[in-house]
Design a protein that fits this description.
Layout (H helix, E strand, L loop, with lengths): L12 H8 L3 H9 L8 E3 L5 E3 L2 H10 L9
Antiparallel strand pairs: 1-2
Helix pairs in contact: 1-2
Amino acid sequence: MNETGKENGLLTLEQVAELLACSRAWVRDHCSRRSPRIPCVRLGGKRALIRFRREDVEAFINTHLCSEKKSA
């Protein structure tokens, strides 16, 4: 952690799965072929490492946030 209390660097597949409380397979599917898409960074070729920017994961969460209020 840096002096502002925020971590630097990219998140791993495991870290994103933990943040979203879902499986690593779900995260992998939704960053590569299923909708809704989670933006990711691919490092390498066919068997690429997958990493995520924290701000992209937070934006994904905010975009798919459902309100408990029902519209009249």
